Amino acid sequence: MEGIILVEFTHRTFSTLTGLLILLNAYWQWKVHPNDRMVRILSVLSIVLLGSVAVMGGINVLQKLPSGLTAIDMALAALLLAELVVLMVRVNGRTESGAELVAESDDAITKGRREQEILAHKRVLKPAAAVVAAVYSEILLGGFFKHSSASYTYVHPAAPLQNELVTRFATAELVMYIHMFAGFFVVLSLFWLFVHAKKQNLFVKPSVLLLILAGIQGFLGFFSIATKLELLTTTAHMAVAALMLMIGTYVAAVAQQVLAGARSAQRPATKFSSGQTAISNG
Ligand code: HEM
Predict the structure, then answer these.
(1) Whose CA is nearest to atom 15 of ligand 1?
(2) Could you tell me the distance, in angstroms and rounded to a whole number, from the CA of residue 138 to the centre of ligand 1?
(3) Which segment, 41-55, 68-82, 101-115, is predicted with the most confidence on average?
(4) For residue 187, which atom of ligand 1 is closest to its CA?
(5) What's the domain range around 174?
(6) Domain count along the chain
């Protein structure tokens, strides 16, 4: 019992501190990027998502929602994590590379090379977006699998059913197979990204890392079942899912930033709006 109280206390302390950091970060970014509309939108969005996670967490505790619905909290938290990665990429000034890539040059060879680099980012963007979508969907499915207690029912078929959403062992089994087979789409999207990354010689390391993490994730998933949901294994499974989402979002956000930077650098100077000045102030 004491252990549970300690875990709950640590969780609440960490979530309060993380929340404060997110608020502070949003305020700071808003302040130091007065001309970058996108940074300001993303800063506000981080506060909105943080608020939603907190409200949803509160509702979960106070209203005793059907347990599968508690996964909504986790889904919002994962969205917040991905959104913070996009904000980080934006404020790190990756758009500068996009602007540099289309900078005027007398040298036709340099210009051609720059155009090729922009094209390379364009080719990587679609598979990277597919990775983000696949990993996020898999996180939703996994969250439902766990929070509906379908996973518990699946590994303890003789135990009384845990809740009102998954009322039969067969349903629990179905949720399990959907989650497991959705993993194939994650792997497919990762190979798609890897092939393009290798071809364009861009983001090769993150795509290899993602493939390795997918292997580890599959192992942890099966090991969770074999050990009847041993705590450390299932916790690591969640952590690797978060890591995969972060890396995938990072690649997609950088590719998108470079393209956005290149596009606005190509526009005539008179058409620049305050939001597009981000290219220079990154
Ligand atoms: C890239 C692929 C995968 C991702 C991103 C992923 C993600 C997740 C997530 C986010 C959860 C919820 C964890 C939590 O709320 O603590 C989960 C649960 C689970 N996943 Fe996966 N998963 C993947 C593949 C697999 C595979 C291949 C298996 C093997 C069957 C598997 C088995 C499980 C099990 C058994 C649970 C329930 C854990 C519990 O009840 O504590 N997962 N998954």
Answers:
(1) 143
(2) 8
(3) 41-55
(4) 1
(5) 2-281
(6) 1
